[in-house]
């Protein structure tokens, strides 16, 4: 968490998960990463946006959060008793996220091909 060895109250610790650590604005002019030890926890789209096909949305855990690196929650063996879930797809350059939408997860990098977002840090 932010602040190294700093101790947080219960309320402060809870607020970290809601983007209280800050946010940043990003457009298609470059990539962004959160501060060390933190993640982007929500992304709000200010206009229709497309992530770069590779490295556009890098999840902390590519099997758990939607991303451009792999298909999250998509059991590879086709088992009906899957613990991972099934049906998840990898985000690619054909996927447009509409203006006004917000997605939640844990991502270490965001890079847009087009569009504008506000990314919340937690």
Question: What's the SSE blueprint?
Answer:
Elements: H1 10-16, E1 22-27, E2 31-32, E3 40-51, E4 57-59, E5 102-121
Structural features:
mainly beta; 122 residues; 5-stranded antiparallel beta sheet
Give the topology string: H per helix, E per strand.
Answer: HEEEEE
Return the domain count. Answer: 1
- What kind of oligomer do you see? single chain
For the largest beta-sheet, the strand count, sense and barrel status come to: 5 strands, antiparallel
Please, what is the average pLDDT? 85
Q: Give the radius of gyration.
A: 15 Å
Measure the end-to-end span: 8 Å
Number of helices: 1
What's the count of strands? 5
Please outline what is shown here.
This protein is mainly beta. 6% of the residues lie in helices and 35% in strands. The protein has one helix at residues 10-16, and strands at residues 22-27, 31-32, 40-51, 57-59, 102-121.
Q: Could you please describe the fold and organization of this structure?
A:
The protein contains 1 helix and 5 strands. The chain is mostly beta strands and 122 residues long. It has one helix at residues 10-16; strands spanning 22-27, 31-32, 40-51, 57-59, 102-121. The chain has one domain. Strands 1, 2, 3, 4 and 5 form a 5-stranded antiparallel β-sheet that branches.
């Amino acid at each position: 968490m932010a602040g190294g060895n700093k101790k947080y109250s219960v309320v402060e610790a809870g607020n970290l998960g809601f983007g209280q650590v800050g946010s940043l604005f990003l457009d298609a002019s470059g990539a962004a990463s959160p501060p060390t030890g933190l993640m982007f926890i929500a992304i709000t789209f200010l206009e229709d946006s497309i992530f770069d096909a590779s490295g556009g949305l890098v999840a902390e855990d590519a099997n758990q959060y939607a991303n451009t690196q792999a298909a999250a929650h998509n059991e590879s063996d086709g088992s009906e008793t899957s613990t991972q879930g099934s049906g998840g797809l990898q985000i690619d350059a054909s996927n447009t996220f509409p203006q006004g939408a917000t997605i939640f997860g844990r991502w270490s990098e965001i890079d847009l091909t087009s569009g504008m977002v506000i990314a919340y840090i937690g």
